[in-house]
Specification:
By secondary structure, this protein is mainly α. The protein is built from six helices and three strands, in the order H-E-H-E-H-E-H-H-H. The protein has a three-stranded mixed β-sheet, with helices on both faces. The chain is flat. The two termini are 31 Å apart.
Length: 194
């Protein structure tokens, strides 16, 4: 079975987000810019459409990041998730796309060190929110980000080194934890009867 990708008013949905961001980028060219772009697309089972999205996003990033005055938070959904049975699909479902594109001048050595360390740590949407909330002020003023001790490490920004903790300690539900392993169930077996 093949599902064709849907359009909205004869355009792909992700292009509306990218077009709006391009317009914002041009309209406010005299200022540093911070853009949050959500590329939530309809699921297209054949995966042929992914190339179109990749090319459009690549072209967009190449153009808007040239001026070294733009920060882009790029997020998307989890991909096909439940339509596969391999481990990579399970991880896709639990780890949606979350990218933060910043000019190298906007990242201090301390921030780079923390971001590098945190790549292998458990973090939540609260950590991401706290990070995104601090970026515009830091980027506009140029002041060094100095973290304050946080009594809730699961809501510290990613510019601070996060503690080593497990999903449970961070409030991540078991079904959403990328550390969890599950036995794969074949879709070919007859349904369970109660």
């Amino acid at each position: 079975m093949i599902f064709l990708h849907s359009c909205v008013a004869q355009n792909y949905p992700h292009r509306y987000s990218l077009d709006a961001a391009r317009h914002f980028h041009t309209l406010h060219s005299q200022f540093p810019r911070f853009m949050y772009i959500d590329l939530l697309e309809g699921h297209e089972v054949s995966q042929r459409f992914v190339r179109v999205i990749d090319k459009d996003v690549s072209d967009f990033i190449s153009n808007v990041m040239k001026d070294n005055r733009t920060i882009v938070a790029l997020v998307s959904d989890h991909g096909m998730g439940d339509l596969g049975t391999c481990p990579s699909v399970t991880l896709e479902e639990r780890l949606p796309l979350s990218m933060l594109l910043m000019p190298s001048e906007a990242i201090s050595e301390n921030m780079r060190d923390a971001l590098t360390t945190n790549q292998k740590k458990v973090f939540t949407s609260l950590n991401l929110f706290e990070t995104l909330a601090r970026i515009p002020r830091r980027f506009a003023s140029g002041e060094e980000y100095v973290g304050k001790p946080n009594i809730r490490p699961w809501s510290s920004p990613l510019f601070e080194k996060l503690p080593d903790h497990l999903c449970k300690e961070a409030g991540v539900e078991v079904h959403a934890c990328a550390c969890s392993r599950y036995d794969m169930i074949s879709h070919q077996k007859p349904p369970l009867r109660w």
